[in-house]
């Protein structure tokens, strides 16, 4: 029993990157970055560009991160009064051949309830979860608190 259970788990893990025809297969992640945090009382944020090199749409539905007790996809904007706003982005669909950027002032990975400070020069793993069940783990470099874009 134990042996077959283990086999099932292993097969399940191996199946993720090989899910034939899944929209997330063609996703390429570029230039992930984050900013150092002051302690853990304020949320962290991560940015990156997601390009769909495949021929079917891929939908990003969520995030997982050990560094955060509550990682969420957010969208920043400006309301009618000119005040900056931020709200859960919901599912993000990336059409084939297109790039969706998580960048300051727009979509971002909000890392609430940090479990450890984000320290400049370090990296942390952030997992992107797609509608088809696939997951892509991204190693995110932590830049200076004043960083405005990915490292050159
Ligand atoms: Cu946010």
Structure characterization notes:
This protein has 152 residues and is mainly beta. The chain has a single domain, classed as Immunoglobulin-like (Sandwich). Helix content is 11%, strand content 48%. The protein is built from 1 helix and 10 strands; from the N terminus they run H-E-E-E-E-E-E-E-E-E-E. Strands 1, 2, 3, 4, 5, 6, 7, 8, 9 and 10 form a 10-stranded mixed β-sheet that branches. The radius of gyration is 17 Å and the shape is globular. The protein starts with a helix and ends in a 9-residue tail after the last strand. The N terminus is likely disordered. The structure holds copper (II) ion. Copper (II) ion binds next to strand 8. This is Copper(I)-binding protein. It holds the Pfam family PCuAC.
Mean pLDDT: 88
The 3D shape can be described as globular
Corresponding CATH superfamily: PCu(A)C copper chaperone
Termini separation comes to: 52 Å
Bound molecules: copper (II) ion
Order of helices and strands: HEEEEEEEEEE
| Strand percentage | over 45%
* Overall number of structural domains: 1
At the third CATH level, what is the topology name? Answer: Immunoglobulin-like
Brief rundown of the structure:
Helix content is 11%, strand content 48%. The protein is mainly β and 152 residues long. Strand 4 (68-78) and strand 5 (84-88) form a beta hairpin.
Keywords:
single chain; 152 residues; mainly beta; Immunoglobulin-like; ten-stranded mixed beta sheet; 48% strand; binds copper (II) ion
């Amino acid at each position: 029993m134990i042996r077959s259970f283990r086999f099932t788990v292993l097969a399940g893990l191996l199946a993720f990157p090989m899910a034939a025809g899944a929209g997330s297969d063609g996703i390429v992640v570029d230039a992930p970055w984050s900013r150092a945090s002051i302690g853990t009382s304020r949320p962290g944020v991560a940015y990156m560009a997601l390009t769909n090199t495949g021929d079917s749409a891929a939908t990003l539905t969520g995030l997982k991160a050990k560094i955060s007790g509550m990682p969420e996809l957010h969208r920043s904007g400006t309301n009618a009064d000119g005040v900056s706003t931020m709200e859960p982005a919901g599912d993000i669909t990336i059409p084939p051949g297109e790039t969706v950027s998580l960048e300051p002032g727009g979509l971002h990975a909000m890392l609430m309830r940090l479990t450890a400070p984000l320290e400049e020069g370090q990296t942390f793993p952030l997992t992107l979860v797609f509608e088809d069940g696939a997951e892509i783990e991204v190693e995110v470099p932590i830049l200076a608190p004043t960083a405005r874009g990915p490292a050159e």
